[in-house]
Each structure stands twice: as C-alpha cells, then as structure tokens.
Design a protein that fits this description.
Layout: H1 10-18, H2 29-42, E1 46-52, E2 56-63, E3 69-71, H3 77-80, E4 87-89, H4 102-105, E5 112-119, E6 125-133, H5 141-167, H6 171-186, H7 190-205, E7 209-215, E8 221-228, H8 243-250, E9 256-258, E10 274-282, E11 285-294, H9 303-341, H10 351-368, E12 372-379, H11 382-389, H12 391-407, E13 415-420, E14 423-429, H13 433-449, E15 461-468, H14 476-492, E16 498-502
Parallel strand pairs: 15-16
Antiparallel strand pairs: 1-2, 1-6, 2-3, 4-5, 5-6, 7-8, 7-11, 9-10, 10-11, 12-14, 12-15, 13-14
Length: about 500
C-alpha cells in the first residue's frame, strides 16, 4: 500500500489551513448543501469536504458515512493534495497504490474516488471536495466540471469568512458586514443580496444614492440594485456614470473617491457633488461596480467609509461569483438530469424515470387503496420496418409513436416512457381496467388517424393492460409481469389489439 507523504511545502500548507479556524467546527448547512449537491450530481453514495491536517483528514461535511475523521497516512485525500487538478481513481481494487488500502478492503469499501483540491488564492491546498462510490466508474465531463466548481465554492466561503474576520475591527461597520455576510451565505438570490447591500450601505453611510452594477464584459455594466435616500425618493436619479470613469474604476483595486465631483458642462441632468467608486472582483477579475453618491451637498469620504466599501466589495464579488457558479451548476445539473431520465431519441422519459415513477405511484396507490393500471405497448413488426426501410425510418416511427402516445394521455396525471427498443409503457394512476381500456381505445384511434406522410408505413401497436388495487403482498414487478403477459398474448393472436388482465390477490 502506498503511504501518504507530506507535501513539498507542508509547513506553509498547514499554516494556510489553520488561519481559517475551520478545523473541528460544528456541521454547517452551507457546506452540507454543497456535499449533498455534488453527491446528487455525481450520483454517488458518499461525498466529503475533507481537510488534511498534519496526521489526519477531518470532514467539515459528509454524506454517506458516520466517521468524523480518519488517518491521513491511508487517506485518498492525502494523495489528492499533491496536485492542483482532479485526482481520480476509477477502480481502487485494480490500482496497485490502493488495492490493499484499508478504506478499500474494509468499510467504506472504496472502489471509485474523485477529489478536487481546495486551493487557496496563494496556491496552498487545504484538502479536497471528493466523491466516492463502492463500484468502479467514471465521471462525465459535466460531473467533473461540477466537482471543480463546487470545490471553488468551498474556498470562496472560507475566503469570505477570513475576509470578514480580518475586517471586523470597527463595531458599527462590522455589524453591517456580518449582516451582509450572513445573507451571502444563506442565499443564492443575487438580486436580494445586491438590493439589501445597497440599502444597508445607503442607510449606514447616510448617502443620497447607492447603486450596484454587474459587468459581463470589460466595461459593460448592467444595473442590479439601487438605494435612494427617502427624502429624495420622488426625484429619480437620471445621471449615468460616464463610460471612461467606469472603465477606470473597473481596472483598479482601490476605490476612486471624489469629495467634489467635477461639474459637467451644461449638464442635462443633475450630477453628483461627491462620488465614491469601487469594483467588485474575484481573483483580480472585475465582476461589478459599487457607486456611492451625494447629490444635495459635498461630502468628504473618510477612510472608514472607503475601508467599508472595499470590504463590502470583496463580499459582493464573492457573492456574484457564487451566484454565477451556482447558476452554472444548476444548468449542468438540469442537463445531467435530462440526460439521465430522458430517452435521447424520442425525448420522453426513459426506463430509469419509469422505474422511479412506478415505485412512487405504487406506494401512493397502496397507501390510499386506489386502482393503478399499467399499459405495455409494443410496435408491431418493428424489426421488419428497420430491415425494409432502414434505421432512420425506424427512428422516425419510434418518435411518431412516442408523440402520439404522449398526446393521448392525461398530461398532469398519467406517465409515459420508452421502456426499451420498440416497447413503451404508460402508468395510469387511479384508473381501473375499464378506464385503461378506454385509454387504449383512444390511443388506437389517435394512431390510426395520425399524419403518417413522413413514415414508410402506418405503425400499429399491441397493448397489454395490467390493473390492480395494490395489497401488501403485491409487488410492482408482478403488475408489470401481468401486463407483459397480456401484450405477448396479443402479439401471438394477430397483433394490433389489446388484452387486459387483473393482478389477482394470492390465496
């Protein structure tokens, strides 16, 4: 077994870890939501935020295991922190480095491991966000992206906490920063965060106007939130920050302060008398701009006000990045879900979606003692279509049938899926045999009357119906078997018809 060894810059790495004061702290919802999210995205039973101490790995958050920590010497994370990219072991039993590792041979029986290092801004690696499975496997590109993205989120949260701690040297200003920090940690609603930040800044500093804008390109600004002092609420602010000044503010870290803003020649609208600008950024990349303005009188900006604004800009920069990354993860997660639960050819649910839905509807019918019917539909002589006209025409036929079946059921109640090949399944909750026969009759009519000009032949289907009021001794598999037997009976006696059977209660 390959033992873990200290990193090349172990002393600096440990110093970076300890400065966050995160070890041995209680579980927290923010981190737990990240591990739950990555476990769901990667479809694994175990996910961890693992911080590697001098002789142990400690889990800030965990899904799927009970242990709070483990020895560093045999940890997978101890190897992962030696590189700044994903560390993946697809099959630990086949990997000579880990085949006899106690985490492989004993609980939790690790077969697959993927860890994304938690890299600080000064390039120190604190640990990993990792996912673990008990079977060998691979991650898709989207899952790898999600793992890297959420590991960045862990670091962003730690950096945010450290920035808050270092900046908490003035009571009045610290109170505001804590409120904003709590909001950033508890919400991914960027509109809400920016609006409350603008209001808090305006009220805390007693200014006339505060605006927070996002930038998507080098200079392009998109206004997010505004605060206007109540006595000025009926006098809308019409002045716009000049592009040249916005560009200058976005290119430098420090705030730009005007105690007396230069009056514009023949201004069309009232310009501010005093102005304070600071960009929000992440890793020296501007992602927004905060502007504070006094219109009614001149104002000399104090160092405390400038320090507060720069501190808020750090938090908002992280909040903006966090929200944008979360949206990316949501989009990736939605795409993964669609890939996992949708048949790519027909664009209706697949067998995996059917299995889960069948189990849910079965439990509902069992609990409320309601009818549940299952229809198994098989395209007649589909192999002949493929053989005579080619697979492209066969695919058209499958898509046509799928859409006809989908359009012929109750959209908010019933469920249709492609079970495999030329076979489709329909679940009819709260529907007895008579009702299921009516549905099949309607589907047959719809198919017979559908526009098939783009198809080589008019497809027909054989239907098998199984119905039951589930009892504790019944199983979903039994109902499927009854419906499948019915469709086989139809196919053996002429096709293009249906047969219905009840799932009998065992004696």
């Amino acid at each position: 077994m390959l033992q873990c060894i200290p990193t090349r810059f172990e002393e600096q790495r440990l110093a970076a870890l300890y400065r966050y004061s995160i070890l041995d702290t209680p579980p927290e919802q923010y981190f737990d939501e990240l591990t739950q999210l990555i476990a769901a995205i990667c479809d694994v039973p175990i996910a961890l935020i693992s911080l590697v101490d001098s002789d142990r790995q400690w889990f800030k958050s965990k899904v799927g295991i009970e242990a709070e920590s483990g020895p560093r010497s045999t940890s997978f994370c101890g190897h992962a922190i030696h590189q700044d990219s994903l560390f993946i072991v697809e099959d630990a039993q086949a990997d000579p480095r880990f085949a006899d590792n106690p985490f492989v041979t004993e609980e939790p029986y690790v077969r697959f491991y993927a860890g994304s290092p938690l890299v600080t801004d000064d390039q120190q690696i604190l640990g990993t966000l990792c996912v673990i499975d008990r079977r060998p496997r691979q991650l898709t590109d989207l899952q790898q992206l999600a793992l890297r993205t959420l590991s960045h989120q862990v670091i962003r949260e730690l950096e945010l906490r450290r920035a808050l701690y270092l900046a908490d040297h003035r009571w009045t200003l610290a109170r505001f920063k804590r409120r904003l920090g709590n909001l950033v940690r508890s919400s991914l609603d960027l509109d809400q965060i920016c609006q409350l930040a603008a209001q808090e800044l305006g009220e805390t500093l007693e200014i006339d106007h505060c605006s927070i804008s996002l930038c998507t390109e080098a200079v392009a600004l998109c206004s997010m939130s505004h605060y206007v002092r109540p006595e000025h609420i009926h006098h809308p602010i019409q002045w716009h920050l000049p592009d040249t000044l916005a560009e200058k503010a976005l290119q430098q870290d420090q705030a730009i302060a005007f105690d007396q803003y230069p009056a514009e020649k023949a201004p069309a609208v009232q310009s501010p008398q005093s102005l304070l600008l600071v960009r929000t950024s992440v890793q020296d990349r501007a992602n927004g701009l905060i502007a504070l303005a006094h219109y009614s009188s001149r104002h000399a900006w104090t160092s405390d006000e400038i320090d507060l604004l720069e501190s808020v800009a750090v938090q908002l920069g992280l909040a903006i990045e966090q929200a944008q990354l979360y949206r990316s993860v949501q989009a990736a997660n939605l795409e993964l879900h669609q890939l996992a639960y949708t048949d790519p050819l027909t664009q209706i649910p697949n067998r995996r979606a059917f299995d889960e839905t069948f189990a849910e509807l079965w439990q509902t019918a069992l609990l409320h003692q309601q009818w549940l019917s299952l229809i198994v539909a098989d395209i007649d002589l589909f192999k002949t279509v493929n053989d005579r006209f080619g697979y492209e025409q066969g695919d058209r036929c499958l898509k046509h049938v799928a859409q006809m079946l989908k359009a012929g059921i109750r959209q908010q109640q019933d469920f249709i899926a492609r079970f495999g090949g030329e076979e489709f399944v329909v679940l009819l909750p709260n529907t007895d045999t008579e009702g299921a026969i009516a549905v099949v009759t309607k589907l047959q009519e719809r198919l017979a009357q559908s526009d098939t000009t783009q198809l080589p032949v008019l497809p027909t289907l054989s239907f098998g119906i199984g119905s039951v009021i589930p009892q504790p001794q019944h199983t979903p598999e039994q109902l499927f078997r009854v419906a499948n037997q019915a469709v086989r009976h139809v196919k053996g006696h002429g096709r293009n018809s249906f047969a219905a059977r009840l799932l009998a209660t065992p004696e």
